Amino acid sequence: MRLLHRNSHGDLTFTDDLHDGIPAYAILSHTWGKDEEEVTFRDMKDGSGRGKKGYKKIKFCGEQAARDGLQYFWVDTCCIDKTNNVELTSAINSMYRWYHGAARCYVYLADVHADQPGESSTWEEAFRKSRWFTRGWTLQELIAPRSVEFFSVEGDWLGYKTSLEPLIHNVTKIPVQALRGSLSEFSVEERITWVDMRITKHGEDMAYCLLGIVNVSLAVIYGEGKAKAIARLKRELALQSHISVNEVEARQYRVPFSLKGVPVINKFVNRKEELTALREHLLPAREQGRRKVTVLHGLGGIGKTQLSVEFCRRHADTFTAVFWLDGRSEDTLKQSLAAIAARLPMGQLPEASVNRKLTSEEDVDATVNDVLIWLSIPANSSWLLVFDNVDIDINDPKAPPGAYDVQRFYPDADHGSILVTTRLSSLAQLGAPIKVANVNRKQALAIFRNGYKYFRESPESDQLLEKLDGLPLALAQAAAYMSETQCSFTEYIELYDIEWNTWMNTNGDQKPVQAAICERDKDAANLLLLWSWLDYQDLWFELFAPAHLRLTSADEVVAEWFMLVTNSKPKFMEKTRLLLRYSLIDRVKNSGGYIIHPVMHEWAWQIQDKYQRGQNCQLAAMVLGLAVPLESEKGFWVLQLRLLLHANRYLKCLEISDGISDRRSRIGVGTTALDGFHGLGNLYCMQGKLAEAEKMYQRALEGKEKAWGPDHTSTLSTVNNLGNLYKNQGKLAEAEKMYQRALEGKEKAWGPDHTSTLHTVNNLGLLYADQGKLAEAEKIYQRALEGYEKAWGPDHTSTLSTVNNLGNLYADQGKLAEAEKMYQRALEGKEKAWGPDHTSTLDTVNNLGNLYADQGKLVEAEKIYQRALEGYEKAWGPDHTSTLSTVNNLGNLYKNQGKLAEAEKMYQRALEGKEKAWGPDHTSTLSTGKLAEAEKMYQRALEGYEKAWGPDHTSTLDTVNNLGLLYADQGKLAEAEKMYQRALEGKEKAWGPNHTSILDTVNNLGNLYADQGKLAEAEKMFQRALEGKEKAWGPDHASTLNTVNNLGNLYKDQGKLAEAEKMYQRALERKEKVWAPDHTSTLDTVNNLGLLYADQGKLAEAEKMYQRALEGYDKAWGPDHISTLDTVNNLGNLYADQGKLAEAEKMYQRVLEGYEKALSPDGVKTFVPALNNAYSYGMLFERQGRSSDAITMYIRALRGYGIVFGTEYYWYQAAYKRIHNLESL
């Protein structure tokens, strides 16, 4: 080791290379600057280092050492001769020891400035963000030294490592014991994870900076690369510990064993046969193999969970990680999986997943996906997942709502071990089945002795054991009861027989266990009965706090026992202690909560009389409904999921119980329970469970109308929420009634300008927009906007939301300039209020993208979508649903630009992401497009929508309409007509005959009738659509002009060419006025006019139209866009008709090459315009006498027509005849 010596004059000289007798020294820790700025060994030797920027650090270290009475110090930049490979290797392998041996370690932070006198403390924030914490080498410099002091760039002292320990731990996440230098408590695998979030200049240093921390030595080979250096480190670790390299790699994924949240008993009676079977089926093999799945199945109370717990305890060290998952429902399972993220080693999950707050379903789903990906990493193959209490079979026809497929939550990789516990023998086929039977006599005796120390074998004890039939739960509870009450075996047998008769006869009045508990503590017994209305797991004291607080201030008669038990946590725990002593409940480890066995839970429900059920029904509603958090509360989603299980149990009990209206007056619980019902409605609504929400809201509304009257503000709040619910269900007429009632009531109670009134006004605007009542919607939005501006000002977020809504409305009305103004105002306000990257700001950015796309400003739209996409990916991650919606929008944009390959990539990404986030049947997944196999996608979407929302929901009908469009494109005109008719009837029923969405379907029917040659029927449809659109949107709206254009097409097909020309000219004039002459929609009509002029024989005029359309398309979309190529094809047809065959060939060839470029090789084979082009090209070759080329083109068209339309299709037959005629020549 070579040190620097500072004499009394401040001169610096090197010592010899010391091996023994090393004096006390200080050591510097810092971050390196640019190579040319740092002082090297040679610089110090030749005296040239003083002029370099890095000398400041060396000077600081020497002076600080002198102040601490040290003459010697060491700095890595200049005390190692890095040109000497032997010395460099020795230094790197000795570095940890040198830092550990230093009397003082000074950390010089070049990016932290000390606070100036009179300034508030700011250095701590800079300290947290210091580059020093991001470097690989500084890890050992933090851990190894016995004394570490931190200094600012000015040399001012900031603190010791010990005094700054909480701050350093918060920044680095390194355990406190490790910061104190005690590494023996941590495995090598965990120590390696501490460097995960750090970087080094040279990739190899990511391995070398760990040498001292993991206590190994390596040859230093710069240039070999990071991967090889790390591989050598792993081999060395493997050699030292006599394990394989694969096991070393697996160890980096080790997670400390924990049974937090799992009910655990301390005295487990050995079940050797089952444990042996589990060991044989589940323990990881030494070499990586296939996934191992085992299913423990048996009766409730048979001991499946405790058997699994014991297996995990015994073999925790054999697995790299053991994760316990709550399989009672899909929600609890996803929450369990998401919770794993916080336990994984640093750096092994995306940062977005680690920092995700799990405040929405999308966040939970995204985190679950990241965890499943982590479990699928090839080297991470030795974990165990325990899916506990999977007691619902999705394949059971009688399965209750909420049934799910547990296999959807298996990691994709074919490795690891999975254990499923279930009561259902039907699920045994999921893996290697192990049936958990009743315990034998020896085991039964052991269970009894564990709970009853006075046990003596006798004929009476034998009789009791025989009655309990080896059921572990019954044995444990009998032992606990006898231990607590000191009753004899004979007395317990009598009580057991009475209890059994009670089970057989629900009208019986004798309840022995309940009576025994009541004798000790009536309040504890009542708590047990109330619990039966809630879920059997996860009961905690804080659940009751909101209800207790509300009832304390309410003027109502409340059950005294409830107020006493929930008054304080000590009182609550006092009551639960008795239930614990009777083994009726258990603690959930490390959660502060309690669990009751399902058998006892159901028993507590069954034994209640009518009065008790009435009282507990009301109390449970208050407890749950008042505990529902607002979406603005931190961590609201986690609490909602916990409450959801209780709500589902409560709803089940409510539905099988008698009505409660007569009980309310008898027991005096009163109106607070109604707010509980309302809160439960909110919970279900926020969780997307609309049918359950409606039941709760209706119950709340009926009660509030009776208790407070129809115009009470609390009643109106429920009315408004019901309106929201009906809107989400697509019941727009019912929603309107609710909103109107709420609005009238709020105007009467609070006045027209109250913010709560304005919220309902805004809701009405949204509804009218959905109903296509755009004029009414505009009036409502304007009223809401004026009110918000008056109440809160122009820049308030609620004001800006209404501005955004107005933008959406104007866009729907075709008032694109006004829409753009609204979006720009909303965007500027949101950027000011929330910043450019806030998700609400990004929503408006996305809306602007949609607007630009509608305006034909495709370049601007792409930029806007890209901004939104980057923002969403940054804020929410790549798999968040809002991110995926923008991905889908980009797909639409690329499709419109003719970039079909890019569009398909976007659609595929959106589809995969939505399937991952929401599952294959979620409505958003179903709305994501895909170019290939469109019919399958629409059919899948239709089935999913019908399942999720029913056959008459508007989203279902939209997909029915899309299927109609697809069938029409495929030439399946009869099927298309059925789809359109179904969509039309359903929409007329949902929205009325004049809704704008209905008019679109009417227009589609007109197109279909035109294709079928039913021209009179087509004209009626187009005329109806035109009248409706002119009335709803006006004569200049884009949708109106599209129908005008369609009428032109119809008249053209009818041979009414003069009328057709009038329609086209009207459409063209209006579009030029509204959108400008180069808008793509304008160009579509120009192209149609070209077709018309060609049919009229006005070939010169036709050519002018085609040329104009072509120039416009080239400019707007580029030369290879599908619409551009369609016009090129039309020009080819025109040139062919004019006899300009060479020019026609150029056009056809350009079209052919363009389609092949724009579409995939398989896509071009079935793309109908490409097939038509091939047919036209064949005709051209035939006219030119090029029979062989003509046959090639005809065959191409023939095959495609056959795939798309079948062999009976007219143009298939035409192509076939032409091929036959040419081949016979």
Automatic annotation (TrEMBL):
GO molecular function: ADP binding
Origin species: Lojkania enalia
Protein name: TPR-like protein
Family annotation (Gene3D superfamilies): P-loop containing nucleotide triphosphate hydrolases, Tetratricopeptide repeat domain
Keywords: TPR repeat
Upper classification of the organism: Eukaryota, Fungi, Dikarya, Ascomycota, Pezizomycotina
Intervals holding TPR repeats: 674-707, 716-749, 758-791, 800-833, 842-875, 884-917, 957-990, 999-1032, 1041-1074, 1083-1116, 1125-1158
Domain Heterokaryon incompatibility: residue ranges: 25-116
PANTHER family: AAA+ ATPASE DOMAIN-CONTAINING PROTEIN-RELATED, ATP/GTP-BINDING PROTEIN-RELATED
Source organism superkingdom: Eukaryota
